Amino acid sequence: MAAIExxxxxxxxxxxxxxxKGISLPIRDGEFVVLVGPSGCGKSTLLRMIAGLERITSGxxxxxxxxxNNLEPMQRDIAMVFQNYALYPHMTVFQNLAYGLKNRGMxxxxxxxxxxxxxxxxxxxxxxxxxxxxxxxxQRQRVAMGRAIVREPAAFLFDEPLSNLDAKLRIQMxxxxxxxxxxxxxxxxxxxxxxLEAMTLADRLVVLNTGEIEQxxxxxxxxxxxxxxxxxxxxxxxxxNLVKAHRRSGAAVFGDASLPMADDIASxxxxxxxxxxxxxxxxxxxxxxxxxxxxxxxxxxxxxRLVHGTVDGQNLVASVPVDCPLGETLEVHAEPSALHxxxxxxxxRLN
Length: 351
Known about the structure:
The protein has eight helices and 19 strands. The strands form four sheets. A six-stranded mixed β-sheet has the order 6-7-8-3-9-10, with helices on both faces. Strands 13-12-11-14-19 form a five-stranded antiparallel β-sheet. By secondary structure, the protein is of the alpha+beta class. Helix 2 packs parallel to helix 4 (137-149) and helix 3 (108-122) crosses helix 4 (137-149).
């Protein structure tokens, strides 16, 4: 096992496009870090630079306190799990698992012990004699993970490994990955665009946007206190409501509502106010913000309802109980402690 440290890492492609813009990130020994962000944010490029599959333009990558910038992937003591499994189709599951160990010159008896142990852990023992084409997607992904585990590397790197699986299998597999990583205690870096997957797996989240880090923190910290409107909108399903309000004598005015706000919280005449859909409730205290939501449509989710509508011409979503009576409008409440304030120009958090 080993820590990973990125120091001012940059990637610039021919033509001047800068995909990664000076990222510094320490990853502790045994930590599970998830890089999350939309397509094109630089997360896969960053992972590939750690792996040695992409050349670093500038900066330093260390694995186990060793600079690996100029080392080939096989010299970095890492194992990578890809979204397309990358299994050898002409080899059996056993041969796929054993291939890397055989190339290292490991004794057959030791290879047998390692492969059998990994097959037991991943519950793929019945498939050792099969070839990949005879396996389901979930079974192939287990084999791909097993090939990484059997090497006992310093770090695991996961590049959207569950994106080819159906929704039910993704949920199952991410639980298995989380339990497996905790059991093995191997430093892991995981790339995904799925924020729910990121929240479920991570010890720490790194939210990326256009090649830069927007925020680093535990999943709950980032969910509860997003640093920017980008993070607020990206992390959470459904996303945080973000509306424009006007500042007026110690308050932010939104429609007919007045939101208490310290005078020194923002310098401009406008402010972006954020509130999670689940924090818009059908009952509130006397200090709660009251809004009348003009209902556009309703999503029935079984345990809850998502009520989509508008207030003062701006879109809002409220998560309410299924037994909540609905008409053309719905009065919702938000406690002052549930409100988030952002600078509309920079998108940065103000409170």
